[in-house]
Amino acid sequence: MSKAPKTIKPKERDTIIQALSAGVVPRVGLPHIQVGRAAEIGALVRDVDRIADGGAAVRFVIGDYGAGKTFFANLIRLIALERKCVTVHADLAPDRRIHASGGQARALYSEAVRNMATRTKPEGGALAAVVERLVTDAVKEAGERQVPVEKVIDEKLAPIQEFVGGYDFATVLKAYWRGSEASNEELKLAALRWLRGEFSTKTEANKSLGVRTIIDDDSVYDSLKSLACLTKVAGYAGLLVMFDEMVNIYKLQNAQARKSNFEQILRIVNDALQGNTVNIGFLMCGTPQFLLDTRRGLFSYEALQSRLAENQFATKGLVDLSGPVINLQSLTPEDLLILLSNIRTVFAAGDPSKYLVPDEALTAFMAHCDRRIGEAYFRTPRTTVKAFVQMLSVLEQNPGTKWQDLLGQVDVPADLQSQQEAVPEGSAQPGDDDELTSFRLGT
């Protein structure tokens, strides 16, 4: 764990506090509050380096609700950006999934690409900057070599054309260059819309850009591979694709829909493990049920179960982080104490003289949480952190209030989301179409 810096910018401080107060992960300032999980972070950093070296990676980050999966994924995203990777990320939802036939897969792709980030644009919306960098470098190189710009662009885009659908990717990128040369903002915008998967009909794409295909449900994965190649030829290290809330696949009521998504995930896993893709990595976050349930989870698909099963020798506290699955280890009480201390430091903007509570308040707060919800207070720390931030907010806004008086009033409920949404293995879901399909009333 790295120490929080002595000073924290006011904007960064407010963003962190607002996010934690709402029980969500802040988009900035994560190093100020990160604790523990050094081994897991190290394993993912090696994956990022492998992507930059022309390899591929796939990881499933598994943990209970509130255990810190999203926080962990966002920290890895920031590390990838610092190492000159491009990242895209999206949450799965009922209308966004990896495989579909009604536009849900294209919706996931579009959301991910809209969230494209680079080191200089970590907040997202970086697609235009990536494409512009490719065009600018091509113009500069053409001037140095004294050759036509289009020739240089063709040379740069040659690797993309080797991918499925890559020819149209190259055609669209050249259309963006022509728009840039002619100051045709409409053509440039059309090219970016196509790259984001926002064209819904091939006729519209052909009219605007002269291409006969669009990014649709069937081509999402191939388009991500072409996008990874684009980031590489534009001068970046590679592409990291991050999908959160993978439990939404587990929740699908239709058995065939789940199977189709599992088959697409299997394709991604096989390509990454066999070295069939380059400069791309996938990081998918889900709950233990999403992975382990043998009726609805990934382990219900035999081919995935064999590839994602744990190392049988990693028992009795031993770990193996070389496989595709990373089971997010719970924070220890010591880790949580450091986390609360870091949050106190964020409130004080890095100035110890402005701490709202002394050290003994941290241990007293943890003891209070332990009495309320047991050891879940550090195993799934989301609600604990949220309550602590809210207590500090009251102290900050009401000078003279004693933390001892507030502590007895702090309610730290168990994380209800995990209780409501986690379904025990083998349990039935209302409307599940693979239940009772063979039942017949005897005559």
From TrEMBL:
The UniProt annotation puts the region (Disordered) at 416-443
**Name of the protein in its database record:** ATP-binding protein
